[in-house]
Design brief:
Elements lengths: L5 H16 L8 H8 L4 H14 L11 H8 L4 H14 L2 H14 L5 H17 L4 H11 L5 H17 L1 H7 L3 H13 L7 E2 L2 E2 L1 H15 L3 H17 L5 H16 L4 H14 L5 H14 L4 H5 L2 H6 L6 H14 L5 H14 L2 H18 L3 H15 L7 H11 L4 H14 L4 H20 L12 H13 L5 H13 L8 H10 L6 H15 L5 H4 L42 H11 L11 H6 L8 H8 L10 E7 L2 E10 L3 E10 L5 E9 L5 E4 L14 E9 L8 E9 L2 E9 L9
Helix pairs in contact: 1-3, 2-3, 3-5, 4-5, 5-7, 6-7, 7-9, 8-9, 9-10, 9-12, 11-12, 11-13, 12-14, 13-14, 13-15, 14-15, 14-16, 15-16, 16-19, 19-21, 20-21, 20-22, 21-22, 23-25, 24-25, 25-26, 25-27, 26-27, 27-29, 28-29, 31-33
Family: Belongs to the adaptor complexes large subunit family.
Membrane topology: Peripheral membrane protein
Subcellular location: Cytoplasmic vesicle membrane; Endomembrane system; Golgi apparatus
Length: about 750
């Protein structure tokens, strides 16, 4: 560049642009672009402007040096030089350049040359995007541009009006007056063909049609008058456009979006759903995918219309494309209702057995929720859940086990049927740990019914006590069994000691073996059960009696979702085998303490769940007196504040404890949308004077419907006692879309005991 003469400068810069396209650094050529732009020769200006568009952007200081050259060239006598300046400004113009040159663009919008007018309109679009308040300059001229006959000018004018309406509500109200004119233009495109040279596969100017439909959607949103003015047009487009070509499908898809977004008539909405149904039969997977994506958005508002295409949607579950399968699954789950639950569940269970591993957890969760909501009978409900556990027991959530156990206990007339079915599944396959845990629990609880085998609804089995104990011992010894499954099996074995008569010694020997187990949890259970055999044998029958029926009205009665606060690694988070270690509320703890003091005769017989729910407030009891002596152990509601709520995701903050220099906080995240949210993470930042310690979260998946929550504890150390401030960043994935948001917290709730 330094040694070459004027004739070689353009060639050298062209070579540099090629080097830049190959990915090599070319920033040293920026000033050469500025020099060539200032040249009076068109050939040099052309290369200079091209280089500026490729090598410069609004962050480069050198871009400010060409502002004056662009301003001069916008007033040039040659339309080609004006075009170069307009293209460059629209491509890389910074906010400062746009502010300085906006009046020049306004002047060129009235140019007589359609070539320059088209580029000036697109330049105005860029300026409006950069500085929305400058849209007022172009609003008066934009209305008159709709009367242009040139295709490029009209297309650009529609784009400009769309940008103006999206940026300013006042401008939107002003442009609603142009709806009749837009409808007239659109009808001309449909009926007579606006410009033959812009036809694509027999569709008249599909690009302009799509732009006009998009603008009509914005103008008709939340406005009855504008919506009524375009209803007839939309019906005409929907019925007269050929969907066999890609161009026609694009116009129809934009029509459907417009119909669903404005206040359209019910018949028109049904027509739009039928168009999406036709898209489902298209051979192009992309068209099928966008069709199901659109149906997913409207299934709640137009459920009946979408139901007509249920068969086609279910067929899409067999598609080879993973994205189409996922969309078909989500839509199928949304279509489940009380009237089609049996038919849809058969299809979903077949899909569960063949679906990819990454979809099994989502499929199982959806089946659980649908079965809980629409189950025609308890037996059907139990059979469905057992089918899922047999097929994909390794992919279900941890809370499925306690919830299924709760369902089984409430169906007292199905205990024999359920335990026989679970026993058969257990001896067939012990690799599905969720199934193993439920089977062990039921065998321990209803082992006597299993041995009788008196059930009319299932083929009878002649079982001996040794057969049942062999099955449990297989679980205890299998390398596939998890520690939790072994704990279930050991407790079930212990419970059988009160339900059988001839093999108590074998049970005693099995339990004693695990008194020296390397697993601390299993070892503790075995030691306690051995003590029950030796020191407290007179109490064994009472301690190991059958669990009472769990009250259906208790909170958290949802099979596919978290019940209460479930902790993955804690045995207190789910009903362990036999239910002997359910979490207890303070009242039941008081009763246990009385038990230790030898005052069991004054305590009414009740299950742990019943005593945890609420003792009779009217009846005097030693437990209540003891609570009074201890100063009252009633549960205190911890105050919390909602610090974030957006798109169905909410985040609450509560203060658990506070000292002079430290405070312990708990964040609770919930999801009220219809889809599971995955990869949920929290990040926090505090001032340098405050020390932050974040504990591990309770999970990373927020199930749909707000049935469970993710909690995370944060400890703040504030030795300098400055005002607490915190900035929290949320990150999660919703239907494959990664969402991030930040919230500033300046005020914190007080702890419950202050």
């Amino acid at each position: 560049f330094r040694q070459s003469d004027n004739g070689a400068r353009t060639h050298n810069l062209a070579k540099l642009l090629y080097v830049h396209m190959l990915g090599y650094p070319a920033h040293f050529g920026q000033m050469e672009c500025v020099r060539l732009i200032a040249s009076p020769r068109y050939s040099e200006k052309r290369i200079g402007y091209l280089g500026a568009m490729m090598l410069l952007d609004e962050k480069q200081d050198a871009s400010l040096l060409i502002t004056n050259s662009i301003k001069n060239d916008l007033s040039h006598s040659s339309q080609h030089v004006q075009s170069l300046a307009l293209c460059t400004l629209a491509c890389m113009g910074s906010a400062e350049m746009c502010r300085d040159l906006a009046p020049e663009i306004e002047r060129l919008l009235g140019a007589s040359d359609s070539y320059i007018k088209k580029k000036a309109i697109l330049c105005a679009v860029h300026i409006v995007r950069k500085i929305p308040e400058l849209g007022e300059l172009y609003t008066p001229l934009a209305c008159s541009l709709l009367s242009e006959k040139n295709h490029g000018v009209l297309h650009s004018a529609v784009v400009l009006i769309t940008e103006l309406c999206e940026r300013n509500p006042d401008t939107l109200r002003q442009f609603r007056k142009t709806v009749p004119e837009l409808v007239h233009i659109m009808k001309g495109l449909i009926m007579s063909g606006y410009s033959p040279e812009h036809n694509v596969a027999g569709i008249s100017d599909p690009f302009l049609q799509v732009r006009i439909l998009r603008l009509l959607r914005i103008l008709g949103r939340c406005n009855d008058a504008a919506s009524d003015a375009m209803n007839d047009l939309l019906a005409q487009v929907a019925t007269n456009t050929d969907s066999s070509k890609t161009a026609g499908s694009a116009v129809l898809y934009e029509t459907v979006l417009t119909v669903m977004d404005i206040r359209s008539e019910s018949g028109l909405r049904v027509l739009a759903v039928n168009i999406l149904g036709r898209f489902l039969l298209n051979n192009d997977r992309n068209i099928r995918y966008i069709s199901m994506t659109s149906l997913q958005k409207i299934v709640q508002t137009d459920h009946t219309a979408v139901q007509r295409h249920r068969g086609t949607i279910v067929d899409c579950l067999k598609d080879q494309d993973a994205s189409v399968k996922r969309r078909a699954l989500e839509l199928s789950l949304a279509l489940v209702s009380a009237t089609n639950i049996r038919t849809m569940m058969k299809e979903l269970l077949v899909f569960l057995s063949t679906c990819p591993p990454e979809l099994r957890a989502h499929t199982a969760s959806g089946i659980f929720i649908a079965a809980e909501r629409y189950a025609p009978s308890q037996r059907w409900h139990i059979d469905t859940i057992l089918h899922v556990l047999i097929t994909a027991g390794g992919d279900v959530r941890d809370e499925t086990v306690p919830n299924l156990i709760k369902l089984i206990t409430t169906a007292s007339e199905l205990h024999c049927y359920t335990v026989l079915k679970l026993y058969r599944a257990l001896i067939t396959d012990i690799s599905q740990q969720s199934l193993v845990q439920v089977a062990c629990w039921c065998i321990g609880e209803y082992g006597d019914l299993l041995l009788k085998g008196e059930c009319d609804d299932i083929e009878p089995m002649q079982l001996t006590e040794d057969d049942v104990l062999d099955a449990l011992e297989t679980v205890l010894q299998s390398h596939m069994s998890s520690p939790a499954s072994r704990a279930f099996a050991l407790t079930a074995t212990m419970k059988l000691s009160t339900r059988i008569t001839n093999n108590v010694d074998r049970i005693r020997s099995i339990v004693s073996i695990y008194g020296s187990c390397i697993d601390v949890e299993l070892q503790q259970r075995a030691v306690e059960y051995n003590a029950l055999f030796k020191k407290y044998d007179h109490m064994r029958a009472a301690v190991l009696e059958r669990m009472p029926v769990i009250d259906k009205s208790s909170p958290g009665d949802t099979l596919g979702d978290l019940t209460g606060e479930v902790t993955k690694d804690s045995s207190m988070s789910k009903p362990v085998p036999g239910g002997s270690t359910l979490p207890l509320e303070p009242a039941s703890q008081a009763f246990d303490l009385l038990d230790l003091l030898g005052q069991t005769d004054t305590v009414p017989e009740a299950s742990h769940a019943e005593s945890a729910a609420a003792p009779d407030p009217a009846g005097p009891s030693t437990g209540r007196d003891l609570l009074d002596l201890l100063g009252g152990l009633e549960t205190t509601v911890v105050p919390s504040v909602t610090v974030y709520e957006k798109g169905g995701v909410s985040l609450k903050l509560q203060c658990d404890s506070q000292t002079e220099t430290a405070v312990t906080l708990t964040f609770t995240a919930c999801n009220s949308t219809q889809n599971d949210i995955t990869k949920f993470t929290l990040q926090a930042a505090v001032p340098k004077s405050i020390q932050l310690q974040m504990k591990a979260p309770s999970g990373s998946v927020l199930p749909a419907g707000g049935h469970s929550a993710i909690t995370q504890t944060v400890v703040l150390s504030n030795p300098s006692k400055t005002n607490l401030k915190m900035r929290v960043r949320l990150s999660y994935s919703n239907q494959g879309m990664v969402c991030q948001d930040t919230v500033q917290i300046d005020s914190f709730p007080s702890p419950a005991w202050t």
